[in-house]
Structures are given as C-alpha cells and as structure tokens.
Specification:
By secondary structure, the chain is an alpha+beta fold. It has four helices and seven strands; from the N terminus they run ββββαβαααββ. The strands form three sheets. Strands 1-2-3 form a three-stranded antiparallel sheet, with no helix packed on it. Strands 4-5 form a two-stranded antiparallel ribbon. The chain has a two-stranded antiparallel sheet with strand order 6-7. The longest helix is centred in the middle third of the chain and has 22 residues, at 105-126.
C-alpha cells in the first residue's frame, strides 16, 4: 500500500481555511461585524444580527428568502430552508486568535514546538483503557487524573535514569 500523501503545508505557511463540507463556502468567508450587528455573505447579501438570547447568549443571522434565488446557494448551505448563522459571544476573540494563528510566525513556531509533547501526553493519559473516566462522581475522578499523570511522569523520569542514593533523587547523566 503506498504511503499517504503529505498534507502539511510547505514552509512556514499554515493551511488555508477549508469547509467541513467539500465544495461549500467556508463560514470564515462571511463578513461578520458584531459591533455593527450585521453579517454579509459572499454573494453580498447583508442581514442584521439578532440580540443575544438563550442559555448561551448566541446571536443569529437569518438570511431568509435572500438564499432562494442566490447563485451561490448550492455552495453556501445544505439546509432545505434558508441559511441561519449562529454567532457565539466570544466570536471576536476566536476570530482574532485564528488570524494570529495564520499570520504570526512566532505563534506558529510555538505551536509547532509545543503541540507534539502535549498531544503525546494526552495520548499517554488515555492509553490502555483510560479514554473514559473510571469512577462515578467528580471527587474520585479528580483524585484519579493527577495520580495517573504522576505515574506517567514517574515512568518518564525512570526512563531518563532517575535513581535514589542516600535519600537524594537524581537523574544520572546519559551514557551516550
């Protein structure tokens, strides 16, 4: 079986925005102005944002019958009715973080530096049947997770040469 093609972007560039549904307009292509409370779609239709409501204080943009004869409808929505866009309260912060992730080389370097060890740590925690919580209730699980993390850290330190001599712990220098 041939190896899978490398999907990482060349150089220091990050991957472009991609829609979750192939051949559809990515929600990032909509112009959302939360201060002016308006949303403009790629076809140029502008609709107002509703006031924040509900348990999560979401705002909605209802495109209504503007979608009915829009030439981009097939690329914009799969809904039988018209498109409804939901905006969360922290939309502006999330959009700023996404822009930083795409444009800031220092952020990208930190991300490349720290993501692999974090992902590895999470993989170690969920390994060997630990994907689900072991106990019912938060008190027991709040005790279990730090214990699991401490055991994994101890395993790593022993692998690095942790020894105890005369009540003193030390990591022996590598014999490379």
């Amino acid at each position: 079986m041939p190896p899978a093609p490398d999907r990482t972007p060349p150089g220091d560039q990050t991957a472009p925005l991609r829609s979750a549904v192939p051949r559809r307009v990515h929600p990032g292509r909509l112009r959302i102005d939360t201060a002016a409370a308006i949303v403009t779609c790629p076809a140029g239709h502008t609709v107002p944002l509703s006031p924040a409501s509900g348990r999560h204080h979401q705002r909605k943009a209802l495109f209504g019958d503007r979608c009915a004869c829009c030439p981009l409808r097939e690329r914009c929505t799969t809904a039988e009715a018209d498109r409804i866009l939901t905006i969360r309260p922290h939309h502006d912060l999330m959009a700023a973080a996404r822009r930083q992730a795409v444009t800031d080389p220092a952020w990208q370097a930190d991300y490349r530096r720290w993501r692999p060890p974090v992902e590895r740590g999470v993989a170690w925690i969920v390994a060997r049947g630990n994907r689900r919580l072991r106990y019912l209730g938060t008190i027991k699980n709040d005790a279990w997770l730090p214990t699991r993390a401490a055991a994994l850290n101890l395993r790593i330190l022993i692998g690095l040469g942790l020894t105890r001599t005369n009540d003193t712990w030390a990591i022996s220098p590598s014999s490379a």
